[in-house]
Amino acid sequence: MKTNGAARHRVVIVGGGAGGLELATKLGDRLGRKGSADVTLIDCNRTHVWKPKLHEIAAGSMDLSAHEVDYLAQSHWHRFRYRIGEMIGLDRTRREVHVAPSLDDDGREVTPQRAFGYDTLVIAVGSQSNDFGTPGVGEYSMKLESLADARRFHARMVNACIRAHAQATPLRPEQLKVAIIGAGATGVELAAELHRTAREVVAFGLDRVDPDKDIKVRVIEAADRVLPALPPRLSQATEALLRKLGVEVYTKAKVAEVLRDGVRLGDGRVIAAELVVWAAGVKAPDFLKDIAGLETNHINQLVVRPTLQTTRDDSVFAIGDCAACHWPEANQGEGGLVPPRAQAAHQQATHIFGQIKRRLAGKPLAGYRYRDFGSLVSLGEHSTVGNMLGGLMVEGLFARGMYLSLYKMHELALHGVAKVALDTLARLIVRRTEPHVKLH
What would the pLDDT profile of 243-289 be if each residue is shown by its tens digit? Predict the structure, then answer.
């Protein structure tokens, strides 16, 4: 640690997702507050929402104001710096992160292109959907990768219902039909949540729309079952529940093209849809591919050693979905890498905090070992399913409690026990007095 007027160690974290924001908060509380290090968080957004919550925002079932974290306020209260911008380059020789200009909604420049110097760099930019080059995805489908994406989908869903109610002509084949491509956690959770919220939107007075006859949610999966990463019994139970809700499930159905009014499958079938959501495949952002000579894999993830340092630069670390971290205990389906889950980002943020303290103290770094606590998928008010440590399959209220506990761990890391307890109590009170579905 540098003292006696010497420059403080500069820690730069790029990406304010679950791992990045937790790390910045912890470093700010422990090192920034004491003046032991300068901690800077860079993100292109102004606010943070836990990514597994995006499907609830898209469906309109979550009160965003109760869950959104403002980066500028968080940085003030927890003694780190927040700088807006999107990483576009890296100079490892000068140890600088290059950040693109930030523009407002009217295209006016808010901040210019800048460079931020670092002594330790942590890249935590998460992941995005992988469309595998499928024609029409960019033009005619939406993704759920950010808060803006979720808001855009919700607005289009509400507008579709209002449009259908107001028009004098019969509904077109694609109207009020939603096609979700990908039956992993995101696709299945969105389908279950939409079943309820779309009907509640109609119940606000759009009585010319018959939710049972007119509104259809369709899930399309290339694998032979939904939730292919979970045990077959849970996949079967989930598919049975979706079908009971009226969700149409297509398995062994590879998408060949996304159309303006639907989806064309590889066998030539066309599934009509007014709204198409691409929720299949995962990759790290394209700008990471071989950035500054760092080693990346075929889906742009930065390859890291057990210390979470990149293989070609000891001063650059990577955590979360953008890191290709070896997992010796992985089953075949995980490909030998730590899976892209919120629990992994949470664990790695805690580990990196210890690593940075060791670097400052001149001590050797420790290896990271992923602890798998299983996978959980929320089906809204209907159920929660998952498999826990040791292969135990769980459903119902117990699984729901475990799912909620993952989010509480994230909130505790950001806000501490007292604030989380008070906020949780306030949400319970508000839920009893306000509508469940948001129309804005």
Answer: 998 999 999 999 999 999 999 999 999 999 999 999 998 999 999 99
